[in-house]
Amino acid sequence: MRYEGTVYRPPSEAHSLLIQATIGCPHNKCTFCTMYKDTRFRLRPVHEIKEDLDMARDYYGEGIHSLFFPDGNTIIMKTDQLEEIFLYARQLFPKLQRITVYGSARFVNKKSLEDLQRLKAAGLTRVHTGMESGDDVTLEKIKKGVTSAEIIEAGLKLKQAGIQTSEYYLVGIGGLERTREHALESARVLSAISPDFIRLRTFVPVPNTPLYEDYRQGRFQLLSPHQALQEVRLLVENLECDNSILLSDHVSNYWDVQGIIPRDRQEMLAQIDYALQIDESRFRPPEISRL
């Protein structure tokens, strides 16, 4: 297999075969992200992707169960191309149970429902989508390139196509100024979708990003550990999803909050309340990740 640049994948894809289908991110303007800043976006030719799949089969054998196609927003590839590589992968790996990609709402919405249904039939199981926030003011500030209405549209379209949706909520990305709006509007958007997964990530400023400079110059105020937990509490309290799995599967988070909404809501709130009783000095500083 051939890889270009740093390859990123969600923690839940730790045991997946990684085959790059795209290089970089077609949006690449989010003010908090450095992931693909030094990479010019391009699509890899289908024949190259299939060659890498052949190499993986020769190296690992036919026993691959899960396959993730990085880089950012691979869903942007033409439906015919994605369908071809998904079907080819299933031919090479008869035990394959899951095919996943990154795809933000902006690029999911470039696909018709028929396109997504074709991809589902070809083997696409799940789309990881970085919602970050459901608050339109926050989305504009971080230059996400999408609105809350578009996030809902994409989530519902994926759901209608039968593709699992993993939505990412970035705790604290609204700053102290909009922590309440960020939580409540995100709860509204997520409740409208009822995604299969809601995954929590806590914002940590990364050097060489515009938002880091805002933080350094005092224009953006980070949440303290307790304030971040209070934001998560407000989110959980207001989610009205139908059996969405909420997970804190990332080292950036202050507490392991997980369960099914609505079934486990009260247990999750109790866990957060317990964490709020712990002195803040025992948590990592807000500006330092444990990575």
* Percentage beta strand: 15-25%
Please give the order of strands in the largest beta sheet: 1-4-5-6-7-8-9-10
Distance from N terminus to C terminus (CA atoms, Å) equals 27 Å
User: What average pLDDT do the residues reach?
Assistant: 95
Give the CATH H-level superfamily.
Aldolase class I
How would you describe this structure to a colleague?
- The protein is an alpha/beta fold and 291 residues long.
- It has a single domain, classed as Alpha-Beta Barrel (TIM Barrel), CATH 3.20.20.
- The chain is built from ten helices and ten strands.
- The chain has helices spanning 46-60, 79-92, 105-108, 113-122, 136-141, 148-161, 179-193, 210-216, 225-238, 265-276, and strands at residues 17-18, 22-23, 42-43, 66-69, 98-102, 124-132, 164-171, 197-202, 244-247, 259-261.
- The strands form two sheets. The chain has an eight-stranded mixed sheet with strand order 1-4-5-6-7-8-9-10. The chain has a two-stranded antiparallel ribbon with strand order 2-3.
- β4 (66-69), α2 and β5 form a beta-alpha-beta unit.
- α7 (179-193) runs parallel beside α9 (225-238).
List keywords for this structure.
291 residues; 8-stranded mixed β-sheet; globular; 38% helix; TIM Barrel; two-stranded antiparallel ribbon; alpha/beta
Concise account of the structure shown:
With 291 residues, this protein is an alpha/beta fold.
List the helices and strands and how they pair.
Blueprint lengths: L16 E2 L3 E2 L18 E2 L2 H15 L5 E4 L9 H14 L5 E5 L2 H4 L4 H10 L1 E9 L3 H6 L6 H14 L2 E8 L7 H15 L3 E6 L7 H7 L8 H14 L5 E4 L11 E3 L3 H12 L15
Parallel strand pairs: 1-4, 4-5, 5-6, 6-7, 7-8, 8-9
Antiparallel strand pairs: 2-3, 9-10
Helix pairs in contact: 1-2, 2-4, 4-6, 6-7, 7-9, 9-10
